[in-house]
Amino acid sequence: MLPLDASNFATLLEDHDNFLFDCDGVLWKGNQLLAGAAESLTDLKKRGKKIYYITNNGASTRAQYAAKCRKLGLPAEEADIVCTAHFTALHVKDLLNVSDFVTPGTGPKIYVMGTPALELALTDLGLQCIGNGPDPVPEDFLEDDWRAESLDKDVRAVVVGFDKHISYFKLIKAACYLNDPKVHFVATNADTTFPSSSRDIIIPGTGCIVGPIVMACGRKPVIIGKPATLMIDHLKEHFYLDVSRSVFIGDNLHTDIGLANKCQMKSVLVLSGVSTLVEAKRYAESTAAADQDFVPTFYLDDMGTFYSLLLLS
């Protein structure tokens, strides 16, 4: 693990054609563009580099993410966006052998716990979604009142993402559907928390919704988002991404750097987001083999520093 500086940046730039960026904490925080981000990505594009935006956040579709990028001054087309809503929908479509020509929302039925963007992505690829939105527990509900007859017998998969309407009723339904081994179990990601504006604030993430279902039904889902490799595997297969000439720039040691190491990509930890240099050094100095999965190739403070290095190259 080395600091990214003028002595090694030129080689990194020369040896890599593809630059994969995490978004929140690297390029922006919330709706605030971080200094140097737009300038850096615009410069990389002018040099002929391919840019991908890789995010576990399933709150937006690819089109919505591309629009946000452009509004912030980042160069982006829909095809550049690699987000869990779209790739979850692609995976479920393949699992259930849905035709490319099926009318949106008329294909196999799936039980969804997630964002409107996730439901839209699934529906657009032909899947029929049920269960999304509020489903509160009735005041007079008793566990003994639950009957399997309440389930839709046509459900072929359970798809779980971040769901602000999470309820005990939804957990029951998801677990009961998954009691049938023929029903597929897919989750957008397993992130335990979301990025927040303060380290004093903890915002539970999608993993906190997936976890109780796993415990109840005894099954593990297929995870789509980082650090799982499914999204990168898709880029390799369909867009001929050469990981040996790709570098991942992210702020999270467990998701971003973990993914890069799994895929044998070079990585840069940006210290403007989730993980700290102290944490990175602790992994680098550890004698445990598993800890090496989270050690970045390089680190630097922020995208402002990245742009300064670009100007010198």
TrEMBL record:
GO molecular function: metal ion binding; phosphatase activity
Protein family (similarity comment): Belongs to the HAD-like hydrolase superfamily.
Binding-site residues for Mg(2+), renumbered to this chain: 22, 24, 251
UniProt cross-references to SUPFAM superfamilies, sorted A to Z: HAD-like (SSF56784)
Designated name of the protein: Phosphoglycolate phosphatase
Cofactor note: Divalent metal ions. Mg(2+) is the most effective.
InterPro entries xref list: HAD-like_sf (IPR036412), HAD-SF_hydro_IIA (IPR006357), HAD_sf (IPR023214), PGP_euk (IPR006349)
Gene3D superfamilies: HAD superfamily/HAD-like
Cofactor (UniProt): Mg(2+)
Active site: 22, 24
Pfam assignment, any one: Hydrolase_6
GO-annotated cellular components: cytoplasm
Residue sites binding substrate per the record: 226
Keywords for this protein: Hydrolase, Magnesium, Metal-binding
